[in-house]
Design a protein that fits this description.
Layout lengths: L15 E3 L7 H12 L3 E3 H7 L2 H11 L7 H14 L5 E3 L7 H7 L4 E5 L3 H15 L4 H5 L8 H17 L6 H14 L5 E4 L5 H8 L14 H38 L2
Parallel strand pairs: 1-3, 1-4, 2-3, 4-5
Helix pairs in contact: 3-4, 3-8, 6-11
């Protein structure tokens, strides 16, 4: 999680749907769940951009079948959700959070925990993140980078698919927060829906999960903003290095061609 991809475990049982929006402490939350539930957690932002091209392309295929309008759409979406979260004890962040009803149906014993923060500060934070990942030149910079060359398309199908279906817009603004909370209260049985602020630490989370507070272990304090920006920066730098190599090779080739031509 954060900047490290989690590896699924064949013994892990899926127990928690992290239904909080991005930038609500999902990285810290995921690390805490991993400690309490003794297994790997699927943090959406990290796993999507840090896994194989086949992985992100499978998410694109899934999102292209949203909004769900037919039995075929349902079959494709559910098949991928069943596959992608096998081997994890929980998921956090987008896109898993936006498939809460489907995950509830697949995992009837799972608890739904929505991470919270001040809505206005969330809107400022998510707005800044949205700008950083939708820069017009990002697609060009990431084109030579495996997996990340599909990132812009992943964002595009997100905006017109499940995101717009749930929130009525293709962007992330203050209204999205309220619509998300209302949607969760509508689709999740009240006895299975919990709200949690990572600033409150172990006690309330352990009460939700009905486990003991870990002794001598500090609650994880990860910065979602730094994690996302670090991932993007690393991938952009990788793209620039690959482009430098490509352009360098082209320059050498043209130089060789020109020197042979003028002889």
């Amino acid at each position: 999680m954060g900047q490290t991809v989690s590896t699924p475990s064949p013994t892990a049982k899926f127990q928690v749907i992290g239904a909080g929006l991005s930038r609500t402490g999902t990285t810290s939350f995921g690390r805490a769940l991993s400690i309490l539930l003794s297994g790997p957690v699927y943090h959406g932002g990290t796993q999507v951009v840090g896994s194989s091209e086949a992985h992100i392309k499978s998410w694109i295929k899934c999102l292209q079948h949203t909004p769900i309008r037919s039995p075929a759409d349902t079959q494709i979406v559910n098949a991928w959700l069943r596959e992608v979260f096998t081997g994890y004890v929980a998921c956090t962040d987008y896109p898993g959070a936006q498939f809460t009803p489907e995950l509830l149906a697949l995992h009837p014993d799972a608890k739904v925990i929505c991470t919270m923060r001040d809505p206005d500060r969330w809107a400022e934070s998510i707005g800044a993140m949205s700008k950083s990942v939708t820069m017009w030149h990002l697609s060009l910079l990431l084109w030579p980078v495996p997996t990340m060359r599909w990132f812009v398309k992943y964002l595009d199908v997100t905006k017109v698919g499940r995101w717009k279906e749930l929130y009525g817009v293709e962007t992330a603004d203050r209204g999205v927060w309220d619509k998300h909370i209302e949607w969760l209260k509508r689709v999740v049985p009240p006895e299975r829906l919990f709200f949690f602020d990572v600033r409150d630490g172990w006690k309330p989370l352990c009460e939700i999960l009905e486990v003991e507070v870990p002794q001598g272990v500090d609650f994880p304090r990860e910065n979602d903003k730094e994690a996302v920006e670090g991932l993007i920066k690393a991938q952009v730098m990788r793209g620039l290095m690959i482009w430098a190599g490509i352009l360098g090779a082209v320059a050498v080739g043209l130089g060789t061609w020109w020197s042979l031509r003028v002889r």
